[in-house]
TrEMBL record:
Cofactors (names): Mn(2+)
Entry keyword annotation includes Protein biosynthesis: no
E.C. number(s) listed in UniProt: 2.3.3.13
Whole-protein coverage range: 1 to 388 of 519
Tree of life domain: Bacteria
Any GO molecular function: 2-isopropylmalate synthase activity
Pathway: Amino-acid biosynthesis; L-leucine biosynthesis; L-leucine from 3-methyl-2-oxobutanoate: step 1/4
Lineage: Bacteria, Pseudomonadati, Pseudomonadota, Gammaproteobacteria, Alteromonadales
Protein's name in the database: 2-isopropylmalate synthase
Length: 388
């Protein structure tokens, strides 16, 4: 089995559909080009049948993206697949992604069809999509709550009909990592033609487990992860691209897996998506939050100044951030104050460390965070005292 995990980005489809206001076609193209630069394998550009605007923006992304595969979403309906095929045909490489729900609750209450009819629709949809391209993905919506026997039957039928990727979504973010990994393991054990397709996963974050579930799935053989920048998406969002990519990179020796993500592009891509989507990133968000490479406690600050990896498992540079940040607060020690003064260009003989540190602690107790300009003011007062 290959050790390459494909990254399928759905920021512009699942991510965008969760925004209060749609992105413009120009903004979507800007994000698509950033995703291409980031090295994602597949960009899901939109849902062409949903509106003329979405059709045009998928078409424009298909025209402009050169290295990544561009995908469009289609329900298992001929008109959706035709719209996808039309919008995408200008691309260097494209994929039609068709889906139908497979859980009892969706089949009975939403589709109101028999289980046999749903398999038949899936097979027809995949065959229809194959008329446009030999890169067809089929998704079993709500696979996480689908009876395993039916899921196996559906996956086998979709592959036989010509699906080259089969996606197993945890649409409502309901499963736990052991459970979701177990579903993937059962598919590999029970579906006879499983090796003829790439198994993909698409996890939502309703219980905060989207990344953990995606990781459990790749550990069981899934080789495509569907994810979004900053984890944006329906409700609590989707698996976060930056998190799964950095897990696979940081723990590569243990997992033995790799992606094509250029991790140094992560920070700027995250900023672009956050700004264009008007979705601020929480400060303590892994990898891209403002505090992800900030150290506050004196013990930690002292540690990273002695050896960065005491408290950093990846470097800020590896995700495109210039350097870590040591917050100057009353918890900071002398070592970090001295280090910061050196960074600001002051030599040892320019200051009396004990006096400056004493003044720093008094100020920090009053105002919380001490900034570089505060420190320089303290230094200035200290120097004036010595001149008097
Ligand atoms: O969450 C989901 O099931 C989806 C499918 C359309 C793949 O977004
Ligand atoms: Zn989804």
């Amino acid at each position: 089995m290959s050790n390459q995990v494909k990254i399928f980005d759905t920021t512009l489809r699942d991510g965008e559909q969760a925004l209060p206001a749609s992105l413009t076609a120009k903004e979507k193209l800007q994000i698509a080009l950033a995703l291409e630069r980031l090295g994602v394998d597949i960009i899901e550009a939109g849902f062409p049948v949903s509106s003329p605007g979405d059709f045009q923006s998928v078409q424009s992304i298909a025209q402009n993206v050169k290295t990544a595969t561009v995908a469009g979403l289609a329900r298992a309906l001929p008109q959706d697949i035709d719209a996808c095929g039309e919008a995408l045909k200008v691309a260097e490489r494209f994929r039609i992604h068709t889906f139908i729900a497979t859980s009892d609750i969706h089949v009975d209450a939403k589709l109101r069809k028999s289980h046999d009819e749903v398999v038949e629709m899936a097979v027809k949809a995949v065959k229809h999509a194959r008329r446009y391209t030999d890169d067809v993905e089929f998704s079993c919506e709500d696979a996480g709550r689908t009876h395993i026997d039916y899921l196996c039957r559906m996956v086998e039928a979709a592959i036989r009909a010509g699906a080259t990727t089969v996606n197993i979504p945890d649409t409502v973010g309901y499963t736990t990592p052991t459970e979701f990994g177990g579903i993937i393991q059962q598919l590999f054990n029970r579906v006879p033609n499983i090796d003829n397709a790439v198994i993909s996963v698409h996890c939502h974050n309703d219980l905060g487990l989207a990344v953990a579930n995606s990781l459990a799935a790749v550990e069981q053989g899934a080789r495509q992860v569907e994810c979004t920048i900053n984890g944006i998406g329906e409700r609590a969002g989707n698996c976060s691209l930056e998190e799964i990519a950095m897990i696979l990179q940081t723990r590569q020796h243990m997992l033995g897996l790799q992606t094509r993500i250029r991790s140094q592009e992560i920070h700027r891509t995250s900023k672009l998506v956050s700004q264009l989507c008007n979705m601020p990133v929480q400060a303590n968000k892994a990898i891209v939050g403002a505090n992800a490479f900030s150290h506050s406690s004196g013990i930690h600050q002292d540690g990273v100044l002695k050896a960065q990896n005491t408290y950093e498992i990846m470097t800020p540079e590896s995700v495109g951030i210039n350097k870590n940040n040591l917050n100057l607060t009353s918890r900071s020690g002398r070592h970090v104050i001295k280090h910061r003064l050196h960074e600001l260009g002051y030599q040892e003989h320019d200051f009396d460390l004990e006096a400056v540190y004493d003044a720093f602690l008094k100020l920090a107790d009053k105002k919380g965070q001490v900034f570089d300009y505060d420190l320089e003011a303290l230094l200035f007062f200290d120097q004036q005292k010595h001149q008097q």
